[in-house]
Design a protein that fits this description.
The chain has eight helices and no strands. The chain has one domain. It is 71% helix and 0% strand. Helix 5 packs across helix 8. The protein is mostly helical and 203 residues long.
């Protein structure tokens, strides 16, 4: 049954995340994602087969990247950051709404478990995507503080980001296998616990 809950949470969280990227890009003047049908809450438009499988294999994964044309944006660096942050913010808003529902409605059984899994994954996606390494959304936020003189370095960093991220996660898993300590797991567990407490206090 846990598998079913995870699939539901994955479909909801990734769909909300990627659709929010697409919606923000469209609002900022780039219709690329909208023309590809990505401003949609249909999970099939956003799930990536390999990214989904990696959730079960390596406990991390991704949705199909939402495309946008940098040159369609009036303020490319700023608007890229806004498009990027729209995804994580949508996940946190989802977690907040679910926290209210769980706290004030007498739920149990399937719906309660499904909502808990969606809230859990929403919070994890929020914090994971803020890591400032491409292709994660935090890399676009990093662009807001990189000076123009370092633009070439920043673009190289973005292009090399996916490999850096994969190597970092593999290294973290190897270290965990030897020492029992995972920096990534510790980071996600700590941020999840702090966020959960904050959400329920705020509601």
């Amino acid at each position: 049954m846990q598998f079913v809950y995870l699939i539901i949470a994955l479909a909801v969280c990734i769909t909300v995340h990627e659709a929010s990227h697409a919606w923000m890009a469209d609002k900022l003047g780039d219709p690329t994602a909208r023309m590809q049908g990505r401003v949609s809450l249909n999970p099939m438009r956003h799930l990536d087969i390999i990214g989904t499988l990696m959730i079960f294999i390596a406990h991390f994964g991704w949705g199909k990247p939402t495309p946008f044309n940098y040159y369609n944006l009036k303020h490319p660096r700023r608007d890229s950051a806004l498009i990027a942050i729209a995804g994580p913010i949508s996940n946190m808003l989802t977690a907040f709404v679910i926290a209210i529902i769980i706290k004030y409605l007498p739920l149990n059984g399937f719906i309660f478990e499904a909502l808990q899994h969606i809230m859990f994954l929403s919070i994890i996606l929020f914090w994971f995507n803020l890591i400032p390494i491409a292709p994660l959304d935090g890399s676009k936020l990093l662009g807001l503080v990189i000076p123009a003189s370092k633009e070439n370095w920043y673009q190289r960093f973005l292009s090399q980001g996916p490999m850096i991220l994969i190597l970092a996660i593999v290294a973290d898993r190897l270290i965990e296998g030897v020492t029992g300590f995972s920096l990534l797991s510790t980071y996600l567990q700590f941020t999840y616990e702090i966020t959960t407490v904050g959400l329920f206090l705020a509601t």
